[in-house]
Design a protein that fits this description.
Blueprint: H1 2-15, H2 25-35, H3 41-55
Helix pairs in contact: 1-3
Length: 56
């Protein structure tokens, strides 16, 4: 639960001013790349999964 909270809070800090529907895939990719820079591919997949579950 804490790991979900951390990524969602960061997402809200980054994109919290507008509706989630207006965030483009390119913006999300840039955000995830910045968030996971230097991490292993497994960590990148986990972060992507966490964020995609939030956006559904």
């Amino acid at each position: 639960m804490r790991s979900y909270r951390a990524i969602i809070e960061r997402f809200i800090q980054e994109f919290g001013d507008g509706p989630v529907e207006q965030v483009t895939p390119e913006q999300i990719l840039t955000y995830l790349n910045r968030l996971t820079e230097g991490n292993k591919p497994y960590t990148k997949r986990i972060r992507y999964s966490q964020l995609s579950s939030f956006k559904r």
